[in-house]
């Protein structure tokens, strides 16, 4: 299988998954990865972290199906499913082929934070073995959307 570069979907500060306030992500129950605490701006557009096909799409999260049977999940905030899509604007459809850096969802970290929810964005290599996912951007670093975040070997 070829190496997959996974990009940061949003601008912000890199956080270890263990620091995500959700046991499913923090415990790597769905797979290894990293998270980005987004810049606190009123409007932020999440971009595709790699090339792929939109396999799952919700206002607050999406998963891309990638060559080799791999999938990458991006979750915008924690418990944001409870917002029922309010404040999230989708730019793609399920089943669409997308390219790294393409606009996916626009949302407001400011509004999510004002609702009392964490804004941190986990980026997960779904069902991957932790040994094959390497963090490219160190915890604490500031990344721009599209910067190299993870490498899936």
Automatic annotation (TrEMBL):
PROSITE patterns: PTS_EIIA_TYPE_1, PTS_EIIA_TYPE_1_HIS. PANTHER family: PTS SYSTEM GLUCOSE-SPECIFIC EIIA COMPONENT. It is found in: Cytoplasm. Keywords: Kinase, Phosphotransferase system, Sugar transport, Transferase, Transport. Its main location: cytoplasm. Residues 22-127 form the PTS EIIA type-1 domain. Pfam families: PTS_EIIA_1. InterPro entries: Dup_hybrid_motif, PTS_EIIA_1_perm, PTS_EIIA_component. This is PTS glucose transporter subunit IIA.
